[in-house]
Amino acid sequence: MQIGVETAKAVDQRRIFVVDEDEITRAALQFMLHDEIETHELASLEEAYAKGQDWLRPDVLILGLSILRAHGLEVLAEIAARYPAARVLIVASPEEEELGIAALKAGAHGALIKPLRMEAVRQKVDTILGRAGGAALIQLGGL
């Protein structure tokens, strides 16, 4: 484990699927999160659905906007139907604000804004999971 990782978080049996066509974003998020939570990086929704088919259900799906561009905003309802207990975070750059806001309105629970920073990513995940130390979950209309 790395310095600054809380053992209670590392063993709480939570799971994240990072789903993005961008390999660099997937790898960065997996690196930032893997010490505190079981994190799986997947290149497509099909891979995520296959991995979550039986016992490996995610608590959080982190979606790159490339997934929303490929499948449309309706995919958020599909994800909610397949994984009703899961929370969805999107990854967006400031230039993608319009699509990011549309995703939040369509059901995403929050956003991670690029450039990604370890402390901000971990804090957002703690918040979305309702972990101690995370701020109260408030969904705002904008990124």
Write up this protein.
Pfam families: Response_reg. Residues 15-129 form the Response regulatory domain. InterPro entries: Bact_response_regulator, CheY-like_superfamily, NreC/VraR/RcsB-like_REC, Sig_transdc_resp-reg_receiver. Keywords: Phosphoprotein. This is Response regulator transcription factor. With 143 residues, this protein is an alpha/beta fold. It has a single domain, classed as Response regulator (Rossmann fold, 3-Layer(aba) Sandwich). It has seven helices and five strands, in the order αβαβαβααβαβα. The chain has helices at residues 7-10, 23-33, 45-51, 65-71, 75-82, 97-105, 118-129; strands at residues 15-19, 38-42, 60-64, 87-92, 110-113. It has a five-stranded parallel β-sheet, with helices on both faces. Helix 2 links the parallel strand 1 (15-19) and strand 2. The longest helix has 12 residues, at 118-129. It is globular, with a radius of gyration of 14 Å. Mean pLDDT is 87; it is low at 7-11 and 134-140.
The assigned CATH architecture is: 3-Layer(aba) Sandwich
The largest β sheet comes out as: 5 strands, parallel
Q: Number of helix segments? A: 7
What value does the average pLDDT take?
87
The string of secondary-structure elements, in order, is: HEHEHEHHEHEH
Protein name: Response regulator transcription factor
Pfam families: Response_reg (PF00072)
Domain Response regulatory: 15-129
Organism: Novosphingobium decolorationis
